[in-house]
Design a protein that fits this description.
Radius of gyration: 16 Å
Protein name: MYDGF factor
Structural class: mainly beta
Keywords: Signal
Strand content: 35-45%
Number of strands: 11
Number of helices: 1
Strand order of the largest sheet: 1-4-5-11-7-8
InterPro entries: MYDGF
Distance between the termini: 25 Å
Helix content: 10-25%
């Protein structure tokens, strides 16, 4: 299930996801990872224009998130990626955003891919919340969600991206 269907399902998930993400982000920031293979939970990176395809990745335990994009115009922008996991490691989150809120680059393509988990919820935004401003979501027709990716939809995407949020469910080992 990539996104809930029906109004009540969307409203319930819309209320639950921000709370879950805040808990995951707070936990990741407060507790350094004890997994020797885990990367820091939040990392800064430059989104570079010029039309070339670039990627940035972070891992946490057995899960990883990779952001691949191509952008035009302007100069490098500072972005951040945060990866986190729930206490029981059942949920994995990946957030990619521009802290200043709005990107001035024109994205010709984007894709965020998770490995080691299946996407339960994802959303893309043309503007990230900053100060008193709220997140501005992309229209559903502008991007698509599969079990492991969130990507632009060719011919529908309007070249604006400032934030991606993914919550994925990790596989459970049955005893």
């Amino acid at each position: 299930m990539a996104a809930p269907s029906g109004r009540s399902g969307r409203l319930a998930l819309a209320a639950l996801v921000p709370a879950a993400l805040l808990c995951l982000a707070a936990r990741a920031a407060a507790e350094p990872s004890t997994d020797p293979g885990a990367a820091p939970s939040t990392a800064a990176f430059d989104v570079r224009p010029g039309g070339e395809v670039h990627s940035f990745s972070r891992s946490l335990g057995d899960q990883s998130c990779t952001f691949t994009y191509s952008a035009q115009g302007g100069t490098n922008e500072q972005w951040q990626m945060n990866v986190g996991a729930s206490d029981d490691n059942g949920l994995f989150s990946c957030s990619i955003w521009r802290p200043q809120g709005k990107s001035y680059l024109f994205f010709t393509q984007f894709k965020a891919e998770v490995k080691g988990a299946k996407i339960e919820y994802a959303m893309a935004y043309s503007q990230a919340a900053v100060g008193a401003q709220s997140d501005v979501p992309l229209k559903q027709e502008e991007f698509e969600i599969t079990e492991t990716t969130v990507s632009h939809r060719e011919g529908k995407f309007r070249f604006e991206l400032s934030k991606l949020v993914i919550v994925a469910k990790a596989p459970r080992d049955e005893l």
